[in-house]
Structures are given as C-alpha cells and as structure tokens.
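Blinded run. Sample ID left blank on purpose so nobody reads anything into the name before looking at the predicted structure. Input follows.
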Amino acid sequence: MPHEVVIVDWQGRPVGAFVPAPLVELGPLGAAAQRDAARAEGMLSASAVQHDPRLEVAARLLLRTETVASSRIEAISAPAELVAVADVDPSVGGPAAWVADNLRAVDAALAHDGPLTFEALWDWHRILMASADLDDQHKGAWRDRLGWVGGPTPRRAAHVATPPDRIEVLMEDLADYANSPAHDPVTATALVHAQFETIHPFADGNGRTGRLLIGWMLHRHLAFVVPPPVSVAFLRDVGGYLSGLTLYRTVGPDEWVRWFAQTLERSATSATATLAAVVELVADWPARLGGIRSDAAAHRLVGHVLTHLSLDVATAAGLLDVSPPAARAALEALADAGVLRRADLPGTGGPGRPRRWWVAGELLDLLTR
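Blinded prediction complete.
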C-alpha cells in the first residue's frame, strides 16, 4: 500500500504532506490481522447490545459514554450532569454544549441508513461543530487550508495531512469503499477510520467525526442499532490509539487493524457488562418508591427517567400531564429515593431566575465511571 509525501508551501517554506494510497488499492491483510478481526466480529455478533431489542432504550445510554470519551480524547470535558442538561437546554454553552453536540452527531450518524455520502459527512460535521468556535464556512465543508496534528506548526507536527486539493478524490474513494468494502466489517471499519484520520478533511473536529464513522460502519455492516462505545477503550489507551494510526501511515495496516480489533473486542465485553448494570439499576427503582401511593405521579415519572436524564418542573409536568406543583412533588420524591439528584447548575436557563434541575445522578455516575 504505497503512500506519497508531497511537498507543499507553508508561509513560504516547504513542508511534506502525507497522501495515503486509495483504499481500493489495498489487498488482503496478513493472517494475524485477519484472525483478530474475525474474533472481534464474533464477539460483537454475540453481544447483548446487538441481539436483545428489549435493551435498546438502555443501550442507547451507551452512546453517552461514547460521546463523552470521544470528546475527552480531544481534551474536551464537562461534568456529566451539565452535559445532560445541555442536551435539552440551549442556553448551556462551553464544553458541555460541545459534548452534547457530539451526542447529537452520533444520533444523526446512526440514523443514516443510506450509503455514505459527502452530504451525510458534512451534515454530521455541522451538527458536531454547531457550538464550536469555528468559522461557519468551515462547518460542513472540506478544509481549504493545510491541516496538521500534534504540533504548533506543520514543520513541527506529528502528522501533516493531505493537501486540500487532494481531499475530494481521496474522500470519494473512502466513501465508495465504506459503502462496499472489500474486507470483513471489523477490518473495513478500522481502515475507514484510519484513512479518514490520515486525510483529515475538515478544519477541526476530525477525530470526533472519524469516530462517528466507526459507529456508522458497525451500524451498517454488522446491523448494530447501538454500537459499543469504542472511544471509551481508545481513551484508556490513547498512546496505543495514536501509535496505531502512525503505524497505519508509515508501515502498513496490519498492526493497526490488530490493535483496533482487540480494542473493539474489549469494548464489546465492557459494553455488555455496563448494560447489565444499567438494567439492574433501573429495575431497582420502582421498589424504592414502596412508601409512596401507587397512583402518585412519582410512580409514573420513574418510567421516564431512562429517556430523560435531566428534568425540570416544566418537562416533568408535560410528561405527566399534571400541574407544576404535582410535578415538583414527583421530582422531589424521586430525589428522596435516590433515583434523581438535585443539581445546582448556575448559568443554565438564561437570564433571570435559573431553572432548577433534577438529574439521574446514580445512572450518570454508572455510565461515566
């Protein structure tokens, strides 16, 4: 798989930029890489996340762990409670909004059942970068300037990405391959991600967009409604992740595919365990309300917590079709039972009196630990 380094001008000085070979030119991988990819595919196919539709609502919570971890790889972090509020409150800005945008982009990618297109990638990028400090012209568009990773300038960078005038052709090749890969699903997913990160087609947000592609590839080619949160495993071994991408560019795909497959296998195992813990926790909630009348609003509200990790009085009143005082009483009852946690989050709700929030604190702790 021959790659090319081309010399480009940066502020009057020559810089070598990396141009990967098209994916369509890649032949079979070595036996070890094929074996690891097959084992990972078997683990993924057997996971509860894929096969039990009763767990789909709970499994979607794994997307939150994927989003938080993918953002943290890029040094973007925010308290889990604030991210939960940012999902529903547009007044929340800063890192919590960026993480919430990432979650919305993951949802958009997994909702895309058609072939991979430039328009889909641009749409995901616009959603991802909605709150980011990036010029609008660079949101949902290929970059028109030199890009690099791991340094203050391209002359001191760990990787200088594909020149802008080569992006279009290479991304066409990537999309064609992603839609009809010549390799097994795990290998193909690894190759698409590494190729995307090598091209680095956007002005910002390439790491997170590239990890969206992992979820989309598993969704499309392994029928995952909710792929395992592989970014959590990446975050635990960022050095291995970055080294693997470097080996892909400099040596070849085999070692990267092996690392990716082994990491994906661990991610599936961890996701199954986390999902089981979520199901056990949620099943315990109704029993905590044993001292409350069975017809009380709190009993009905507990059924909404799994899909509403942050609640205020107005939202709870709308869900239950009750008055604000009755909704507040239900929220307080769930807080007293430990199902919800009262959250003091200054700066939410815009000017004037701040909105008071209750969040599924115990569940968020479980997902983010």
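Unblinding after everyone has recorded impressions. The domain at 289-368 is CATH 1.10.10.10 (Arc Repressor Mutant, subunit A).
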